[in-house]
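Researcher: First entry.
Model:
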Amino acid sequence: MSASYSSSLLAYCRPGFEGECAQELAAADAQGGGGGYARAERGSGLVEFVAADAEARRRLAVGARWRELVFARQLLQVLGGARDLPPRDRLGALLPIVENDPRRWCDAWVEAPDSDAARELAALCRGLNAALIAALKQRRLIDRGSRWRLHLCLTAGDAAFVAAADVAEAAPWPGGIPRLKFPRAAPSRSTLKLEEALLVLLDEGERERWLKAGMRAVDLGASPGGWTWQLVNRSLHVTAVDNGPMDAALLASGLVDHLRADGFRYRPARPVDWMVCDMVEQPGRVAARMAQWLAQGWCRYAIFNLKLPMKKRYDEVQACFATVRTALHEAGKRVELRAKQLYHDREEITVFARVV
């Protein structure tokens, strides 16, 4: 059984955070007039947001871009969906939805949400992806110069959404997840959080301009050095602030000064380019401290994590953002905030901030 979803958007998120993702989309929808509603199952890693009509969906897609959302890893325009797919001809049931759309596609991805149940569909996704590309080529629906990418999202072995993504506005990784390998030389797996943050929250040009060899950085709560390692790997000089021990190889690099001090009390003798922080503390307290660094001009750029409470997590995020913006406003400055719940995050989000 297939159906049209001309007013729906599909968002991938971390399983367990469907409610926060839905709240975020509802808030964006309300700014454009409202009338929409979310459909989600806890633990599914997926939220379908049904706008009031096709025009409302268009406004929502403009007002809620993937890069500007915190809890959505990917945001897609739904073309249709089907249930009770025949096991021997799933594509046969889904291709009419594709053929009913006038677009051609630069590529096509078959994927499943990042949930325990959906992970079992990985092998099926790989097999269907090759078959889908072949079918699109046969129908002359592949155009490498197109701005549109086709997505099939399997929610079960016999159910799927058919969706579209504007490649300029969508995450460039299947499932919205950049697959990173743990660097063996790094002292902790937390290094992957900062690596992913730099990849997701900054574009290539920004990384080249804002992360140059010889820049100076401070890592608050640095021990044992997972985040410091990422900065040193880019030839930045780092002051690692933590009462705990630092990795010996990092200290031997000549690019790290280890200062045994409290990250909430330390202030640099002179401004630095970067400040990063992954301290385990109440999010409001971290946000206030980050705001102080930015308002006082102690750093130009900052990346920090906010550990979220068990309840009212969306509200807590908004309160933390307001803390930072208010502090900068009172200092006569404006701040740009970008944030994402990364794949390597758990009960937290990662925020990039800069004074503009």
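Researcher: Second entry.
Model:
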Amino acid sequence: MTNILISGASIAGTTTAYWLRRHGFTPTVVERAPAIRTGGYKVDVRGAALDVIERMGLLEAVRARGTDMRHATHYDAAGHPVATMDADLFGGRTGDDAEIMRGDLNELLYDLTRDDVEYLFDDTITGIAEDGTVTFERSAPRRFDLVIGADGVHSVTRRLAFGPEERFRRDLGAHISISTVPNHLGLDREEAVHAAPGRTANVYSTRQDPTAKALFMWSSPALSYDHRDPARQKELLTEAMAGVGWEVPALLEAVRRSDDFYFDSVSQIHMDRWSRGRVVLVGDAGYCASPASGQGTSLALVGAYVLAGELARHGLEGGALERYESAMRPFVEANQKLGPANLKGMVMGSRLAIRFQLFMIRLLPHLPGRDRMIERVAGAIHRAADAITLEDYKTVE
């Protein structure tokens, strides 16, 4: 087994391509977008995922491109600051944790693979036969020994091999939207946050970025819309945030003009198994933990490393896919549990809950047990981030 197709040039896809190449396989990556995706939002890399980054020789580069966020300030509806906290505490980061823009990380991963991995951009798979023959929207059919779905929560690969998305997606009762907007608040490595019952707005600017990111999250039942219709999605966002004060009206107006727009439900993917025949899933396609978990990127990095390593060590006939799942399942479950728990603190249902959270933020610096309080906030995330022991898979290159 040598020829492997990876669907999706995501974090999971590019990382899988890197490790497969290091183990002597010949991976091909197909990506619907016309080029590597460089936009997105800031993501955290923790625990075992940091070990993967270090083994790829990227740790120094990741830290060099770190967001360098300093603090997060909460504002009331009239624009008055009401509470400020350290950015690392706000993001649940301690110790060696790294924060980087998702596009920057994907660009670093792509640069590691672009010279010795075949990339098929502006294309997507349309069918997978039992003998491994894959049909594409644009390219001619080709046969592969294995197809790896690394194409996200709305995975085409998963739909073709396992069935409709609705069978596996669990909505957590919220939606999220992120856009690049002008930095009209003059933010410098800081976050500005406003919370209303059931709705939260956050705008931030990272190091060496003249623009800002506007992030909205709100409680919501399942919505019916086309995932490829940003105009309708922007309408749904505007409807959801109607009547919220602070800078929200100005941010919504900026979002309407933005061509860098992300909108989706806050959801998880739960599956009884991640492989079927010649198809296996990695990252969000198989076990999305939701943006609320803060661990999606780490799951993608670790999953890609383990999958490639098990394929190299055991091969398909030796049970590699079963071993991959056995190694990853407890890690995935620990990190998926974070999503619903974290979401409660990100979108609060009442003004009383908001006032209590702000009170605790103001009180925290003055508490004698401050470090223990921080550990309570970040401890669950780090226990989940370290809930796997990585094997040392020997590479051939």
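Model: Note on the second entry: The chain has 14 helices and 18 strands.
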